[in-house]
Amino acid sequence: MTESRRSRVFVVGSLNADHRVHVTRLPAAGETVLATDAAVTAGGKGANQAVAAARAGAPTTIIGTVGDDADGRLLQRALTEQDIDAQRVRLVPDAATGRALITVDDDGENTIVVVAGANNQLMNTDIDQGLSDIGPGDLLLLQLETPESVVRHAARAAGHAGATVIMNPTPVPESAGSLFEDVDILVVNEHELGHLAGDITSLARQSNSTVICTLGADGVDVTHRGGVKHVAACDVDAIDTTAAGDTFIGYLAAWLAVRTDDLLDAVDAAVLAAGVAVTRRGAISSIPYGGELTCSATTGEDER
């Protein structure tokens, strides 16, 4: 596809140090299992999505907060190495950098517990400064691992500036209320969809936005022009699904920023990228570059 656009992707989101262990199987409640290896790497949904957008070829800026500690320096170094503008990441001297405790089994399934740390110190002033130059054609990515009031403020600011707002509402809120008021595209998984609305068309009506539901190995459903389109997933051997959703979202935004106005074209690319990511271990380390998208996905009307 020929590049026809050159807008930017802004990410407001969490910056965490991922403390990851690999086990043969996930433990049951109250059970102890032995890990086969462990690692600490840069992560967080904000960082992961920013890296995905940058590797897909979009000029990318991240806005967030980290602590004045080794984990914070790890994150800042990792983002800078990806050619991401991380100058709008604020250092919080009296808080620890956020952490994600991740357990991954031999089948690629995972459990994740997040300790917010410095992410909870993100403020509206960070948003006002960080989004001061966002404008029409740009895209803003949001999640809910930072304070919900700040996320709302960011969506409102970007919307008023004419940017497209994409939200991944995870962790899923107890009540959405007016959370989606300034959101153009909602990206949810099956669990989040079930909690928020039950079905994709209901959520689209409630939120007045385009809804994309990721279905793992079954692909993606998208509300589009009054109907629902389905995009098939790649047939791959998944070994770690940790960053699949973040890879999908980052690629979706990047494709809309620098490649195409067509949502389904962007979804196709995002599906391919997520399909590559699940064949690799880790979060940021699993995210592919644009030239690595290899398998072919297909779109069609959903007949359900």
From TrEMBL:
Its EC number is 2.7.1.15. It catalyses: D-ribose + ATP = D-ribose 5-phosphate + ADP + H(+). It is an enzyme of class 2 (transferase). InterPro entries: PfkB_dom, Ribo/fructo_kinase, Ribokinase, Ribokinase-like. Substrate binds at N16, A17, D18, G44, K45, G46, A47, N48, E145, D246. One of its GO terms (cellular component) is cytosol. Pathway: Carbohydrate metabolism; D-ribose degradation; D-ribose 5-phosphate from beta-D-ribopyranose: step 2/2. This is Ribokinase. It comes from Mycolicibacterium iranicum (Mycobacterium iranicum).
